[in-house]
Amino acid sequence: MLIFAALTNNMTKTRITVAHGDGIGPEIMEATLRVMEAAGAQLEIETIEIGEKNYLAGFTSGIKPEAWESLDRTKVFLKAPITTPSGGGYKSLNVTIRKTLGLYANTRPCISYHPFVQTKHPVMDLVVVRENEEDTYAGIEHQQTNEVTQCLKLITQPGCEKIARFAFEYARAYGRKKVTVMVKDNIMKLTDGLFHTTFDEVAKEYPDIENESYIVDIGAARLADTPERFDVVLLPNLYGDILSDVAAQITGSVGLGGSANIGDNFAMFEAIHGSAPDIAGQGIANPSGLILGAIQMLVYIGQPEVAENIHNAWFKTLEDGIHTGDLFTEGLTKEKVGTQGFADAVIARLGQRPKTLPFMDYNKDSAKKIQINIKPKPLMKKELVGVDIFLDWNKDNKNAKMLGDLLSQHSVGNLELIVMTNRGVKVWPKGNPATFCTDHWRCRFTSKDMDQPVSYQDVIALSQILSEAGFDIIKTENLIRFDDKIAFSLAQGQ
Ligand code: NAD
After folding, report:
1. Rg (CA), the chain
2. 84 alpha carbon to ligand 1 midpoint, in Å?
């Protein structure tokens, strides 16, 4: 205790921004700030208000301009969970903050604390590295026809490269041995395919770290069943969101998961879980997730001694059987406490070491920031070879043959109707009458062998002709060859 006090007295204060959030947010933030203060964290705190109150006051982004100014000043954000009102009109503020500040890497350590916390997985110590900016979380969605909505999944080469490098650098910095990537590239060959191939390329530069890949469905099953086989798990945004909750929950409680969102110039620290409105205001929430997020923040801002002190006191609290309700287990829990009682118990143990759980040793090295620099890829040769024209059409009982026969009467230059799909399945030519059709048709116009270049003027002319013929065009998607390779998916059955 004395050693830590001596070290922290000499530290200069680091300015951080704090948001108390919604639901259980204010309760767990109060507990976390009290623990950090008692441990001697040297912080100058700027408090901002974000979340539900702002949404309801008409700020549909959930954040006011002055809050952005504070984040620009401090560049370090400790955030309690916030409530995203369901339904239209409100964007997730979490996603907005992560993307606006370029917080591309989300690290979520999920560790079991056997035998002090009840878990089916006594040997579990993994870190989910979730890509934080891309994927379906671009939030670009449209209703396109009476029956069909779409969400755009964006995966970029620099995004994949940055997060793959981050995962390997993280493994090196924290002494981890293996990085596992999980994707669904048997189905999404271009988007998840890019994530996977970029991972494979980057992995070659880290021969000291083992690498492996899983299709995400079996990978998720293995993670839930035998988490001890995993070390660092790298996932695109959506799978990472889901699987990090699974991983945190099977350690004993989702309330145990802390999370760091890291970018080149900013960082945000939070709990994995949400605002838990079902238990808000009752003083029973587990503050551990946010405390563990704050510990990652203290390491990041160069106060590893304070982080170490809190982490070890937190271990000792669990070892002593002091549990919030979510961890309560007959025979294991010695004392059931509320949110502030748990914080008091951690504070009372500052300076103590765990007896069984591993002593956390945050040396100066682990405080070093992971900086990723990537070089832009050389430009590829790009050729337009066709167009997918999407139509809203619900005539004649959505008879695919009738629509195909009508459309095939129209052509411009090399562009003629080659195939038509409904929800991705080929329905013309020679569709199967059993295929269920909606009012949303993808009509592919290319040259016969898809290999003749076409001009965009031809695409415009074709769109014009179809529009004048009465077809309702929803959108067009250019079909491109990059470096002489087709860069679009074929229709199922094409
Ligand atoms: P949630 O994580 O808030 O709660 C899920 C379940 O876990 C609930 O039963 C809750 O009581 C329990 N739980 C969560 N944290 C706990 C803790 N610290 N201690 C004890 N029990 C805890 O998920 P949800 O109910 O799906 O979402 C509620 C709201 O939170 C939604 O508006 C959602 O958008 C938002 N959310 C915010 C964040 C964030 O701010 N980072 C993350 C996820 C969800």
Report:
1. 26
2. 11
Question: What pLDDT is stored for residue 91 in this prediction?
Answer: 74
Instruction: Name which residue sits closest to atom 31 of ligand 1, judged by CA.
Output: 83
What is the rounded CA–CA span in Å between residue 476 and residue 236?
27
Asked if residues 286 and 253 have their Cβ atoms less than 8 Å apart, the reply is: yes
List all residues whose CB is within 6 A of at least one atom of ligand 1: 24, 81-84, 94, 254-255, 270, 273-279, 285-286, 289, 326
Enumerate domains of the chain plus CATH numbers. 1-102+263-361 (3.40.718.10), 125-250 (3.40.718.10), 382-486 (3.30.70.1570)
DSSP one-letter code for 375? P
Mean pLDDT of 464-486: 96
pLDDT of residue 370: 84
Tell how far the Cα of 254 is from the centroid of ligand 1, in angstroms: 8
Residue range 357-406, pLDDT digits in tens: 988 888 765 556 788 989 888 999 999 999 999 999 999 889 999 999 99
Q: Which residue has tokens 């002190």?
A: 309
pTM attached to this predicted model = 0.91
Helix, strand, coil percent content, the chain, rounded in steps of 5: 35, 25, 40
CA of 322 to the centre of ligand 1 (A): 22
Mean pLDDT (whole number) for 161-188 = 96
In total, the chain counts a number of residues equal to: 494
pLDDT the model gives residue 233 = 98
Ligand 1 centroid vs 493 CA: distance in angstroms?
42
Contact partners, residue 176, CB within 8 Å, separation at least 6: 127, 170, 209, 231, 232
